[in-house]
Amino acid sequence: MSFAKSLRCRECGREYPLNPIYVCEFCFGPLEVSYDYQAMAGAVTRESITRGPLTMWRYRDLLPVESDEVVDINTGFTPLVHAKNLGHKLGLDELYLKNDCVNPTYSFKDRVVSVAATKALEFKFDVLACASTGNLACAVAAHGAKAGLKAYVFVPADLEQGKLVGAAIYGPTLVAVHGSYDQVNRLCTELADRYRWAFVNINVRPYYAEGSKTLGYEVAEQLGWRAPDQVVVPVASGSMFTKIWKAFNEFSNLGIIGPVGTHMHVAQAAGSSPIASAYEARRMDIRPVKPNTIAKSLAIGNPADGYFALKAIKESEGSAVSVSDDEIVESMKLLASTEGIFAETAGGVAIASLQHLVAAGRIKRGDLTVVYITGNGLKTQEAVAHVVQPVTIQPHIADFEAAMELLSSRE
Amino acid sequence: MAKRRVKFTFPQQLITEPVIYQLGKKFSVVTNIRRADVRKDRGWVVLELEGDEAEIEKGIAWVSSQGVRVDPVAGDVVEG
User: pTM for the whole thing?
Assistant: First the structure.
């Protein structure tokens, strides 16, 4: 049993039963899970949480699942690293990295899909589906396999084969769709209306999105039950950003942590930055763009939660930053060479944005700062392939030593 | 009869054009506006289109050809 009580329209406030629906029938606004917080407050404590497993499911009382058995491939409770080397370089004493690269399919998407797959079984769907160019495909295919659900993964036909291995290995049906990005988008939305399938980020999106809250809960717990001063999040649809903000506030309202003074910062790639553009222009409306960036996992031109991300920025007195592709690559290398963490391009976006925020004086030396690293660098190797410059030698000691001499003379 | 929930985003030069009226006149599509925000420099309208599947497709293609961006109300669903 959960404390979820209804789905509520985020625009007009109308309430609906907890079914696999995603828009308000009246105003077509997005639906969100609402909870009985009074009942939750009586049941959820630091002690009840710490008695749970060392996965995201230690927070199950704060998630909208009813069944005892959840679809879990051991997701979550990923490391929160005190990044002393990177912090030293940037002039930050209290810099922490939430390393979500180390989830089972190597990105934070395991969190949202774990909830979506659990709900798919509860709603008695036979198929778990998504449209994706990367991380989401892997997470859906893996959770489909674990849950015994058929998995359908829709991808643009021009996507490189290599990108599909991480999903294909789990045995989903891969459907390669010819057409523009917009056409693939439209097709999948229509398929979700036509077939009785669990499309994780369409008809079960209200539940799916709640999985991202665990990124907020974990950080608060790992910091010793407190919210950070500053948070930097790589942003695509805006959903994860708003859910991290929601998580801190839920914890505070439940008395699990003290008041939340966190400033929330959106990090976007300049080639796909509709939220940062709106923030810079002091607008609260999102103007869709055509993405063009190496940060493919953030390439969402028409973000579903863009407005709500702007609202979270406003409420938290945060900001939004956009960074160039060159800065992304340099920041991936900086993160790897200082902290030993190989992040995908989205991680480069987060670290590059952090540098902008420090330079602008928005984040200060003593601020307790958390940067979310949401996906593994092995997924976007092409972005940094140029780092491979080996010293080539013959299998003789003399050859090796000559090469070393040459190297040190260059330094 | 099919139904399609869409969002039209208008560029500045089309704000004053009766695009939705013309969509209903040119094609056998019933337009039903649910939410909108139209200002002097831009605007968006969330609406339902009801009609024959093929007629809706033709209508959407015509609206797009006028320079209006057409998206599903769910936003982009192809994620990284």
Answer: 0.96
